Amino acid sequence: MWGIEHYWIFILSSILLNITPGSDTIYILSRSIFQGKKAGIMSVYGIVSGSLVHTLLAGLGLSLILMQSALAFNIVKWIGAAYLIWLGIRSIMARHEDKPSMQAVESQSNRKVYLQGMMTNVLNPKVALFYLAFIPQFVSPEQTYGAIPFILLGLTFSTTGILWCMLLVLFSSKMAQRLQSSRISTYMNKITGSIFILLGLNLLRTSRNVSS
Fold first, then answer.
1. Which residues cross the membrane (predicted)?
2. In whole angstroms, what is the distance from residue 116 CA to residue 111 CA?
């Protein structure tokens, strides 16, 4: 379908990755709890907007790199795999107290909440590198649709993200208390870390016939 492979596996992986507590989760919870539901929704819109920017950049850039240069593909593959494996190990070994404190977030207007959410996502180089490492694993080597499969996968990842984030906004009080549990945080870190490591190892096995 449109040059995409294992789409349902991608959806499942996206859901698991999106529900894992992280900086975006903490940001959304903090805005929802301290500024209300509207601010929480604006923070979701901001983060998703940043994710869509990364989707477009990754789709256009990856389609050119992967289809025109075998060397570039291998460079991206090794960097992406190394990053995913490192991220997985770091996630497994992470401690609950390493997460950012929600109490440090100050009150801002909804417009600023949106812009801050978007810019913190857009300006995070780890997000861009994650897109480079994650999405290509689900694109067919023989696909002839250019950037379309990359963009569709990015939109799918963003869609699963926005659904989860809206649930966080609606149930922020109960969810926030549970996410602050060190036991649950540890379990989620181990699950996500294992996913990252498996994806990194799988990326190392990828080979494509690309003209240099």
1. 6-29, 41-65, 71-92, 113-135, 147-172, 184-204
2. 9
DSSP class of residue 11? H
Summarised one tens digit per residue, pLDDT across range 131-143 is 777 777 787 766 6
Report the C-alpha gap between 30 and 158 in whole angstroms.
21
Return the half-sphere exposure (C-beta side, CA atoms, 13 A cut-off) of residue 162: 15
Judge whether 141 and 68 are in contact, CB under 8 Å: no
Could you write out the DSSP letters of every residue in 39-61? HHHHHHHHHHHHHHHHHHHHHHH
Q: Which of 58, 212, 50, 70 is nearest to 147 (CA)?
A: 58
Which residue stretches of the chain are H helix? Answer: 7-18, 23-35, 37-68, 70-93, 110-122, 125-134, 148-170, 172-179, 182-204
What is the value of pTM for the model shown?
A: 0.60
For residue 154, give Cα distances in angstroms to 34, 139, 150: 30, 12, 6
Residue 36 Rama label (left phi>0; alpha psi -120 to 50; beta): left
* Spatial distance between the Cα atoms of 165 and 187, rounded to a whole number of angstroms: 20
Residues belonging to the chain: 212
DSSP string covering 128-142: HHHHHHHGGGGB-TT
Q: Which residues are within 8 A (CB) of 188 and not within 5 positions of it... i.e. 6 or more apart?
A: 19, 20, 21
